[in-house]
Write a structure and sequence with these properties.
By secondary structure, the chain is an alpha/beta fold. The chain is built from ten helices and ten strands.
Length: 234
């Protein structure tokens, strides 16, 4: 579904991503793990066209993305849950979710999908008329995920969904990621919590200073001594 081929990306004057290639197959959860500064967020921003590679190619369902813009990604079936949530603070929960569906015309199905989001995140329904900026950090993360799902994405890019959350909320977020996967949505997950990410993922890539240094089956990596030592606290 997604193929990244030999991309180089500069962030300001920093050579953040170096000749990087990987792929995500339809229906998979693939995670990118690595230390802060490894380039994980830069990769997601490049895929969703918020950053432009200086060389290399990105394909989504065999369609080259090089000449497309960020807003066109939504129409192709890609949604990005950004680091830091980025909800529309002055808008209500309901209005934020409606913004996620702004490209859609099927009003009846939009209502059904909003109810589905409320099924994933019952707290959002309880706060449907509340300004998003007044929600807790965990609730804002749920809203950011729900807003992305309202576009009915084929591929969901998720950047650090557990950042800053209490452990009980982290588990809840990852349970929802597994539920979303079961609906057939493909997920590319960037996550500092490598242990949780590897538990929900099918495959994983390990990043170090803009390069992939290891790739493989996620469950195998959970038991890899070098991965345990570097990223799992083992």
């Amino acid at each position: 579904m997604l193929k990244v081929e030999n991309i180089d990306v500069y962030y300001d004057k920093i050579h953040a991503i170096k000749d990087l290639s990987f792929q995500v197959k339809k229906g998979e959860v693939v995670t990118l793990i690595g230390a802060n500064g490894a380039g994980k967020t830069t990769i997601l921003k490049t895929i969703s066209k918020l950053l432009t590679p200086t060389q290399g190619n990105i394909f989504f369902e065999d369609k080259p993305l090089n000449k497309l813009t960020a807003d066109q990604m939504v129409y192709l079936g890609m949604a990005h849950v950004p680091e830091g949530r980025r909800v529309f603070a002055q808008m209500s929960v309901e209005e934020n979710l409606q913004m996620g569906a702004y490209i859609r015309k099927d009003k009846d199905n939009i209502k059904k999908d909003m109810e589905r989001v409320f099924g994933y995140f019952p707290r959002l329904k309880e706060r449907i008329n509340q300004p998003a900026g007044t929600l807790s950090g965990g609730e804002q993360q749920m809203l950011a995920m729900g807003r992305a799902l309202m576009s009915k994405p084929k591929l969901l890019l998720m950047d650090e969904p557990s950042m800053g959350l209490a452990p009980i909320l982290v588990q809840e977020i990852f349970n929802i990621i597994q539920t979303i996967k079961k609906t057939g949505t493909t997920i590319l997950l960037v996550e500092q919590n490598a242990n949780q990410a590897l538990q929900v993922a099918d495959r994983a890539y390990v990043l170090e200073t803009g390069k992939i240094i290891k790739e493989g089956d996620a469950k195998t990596m959970l038991n890899d001594d070098s991965i345990k030592k570097a990223y799992l606290g083992g």
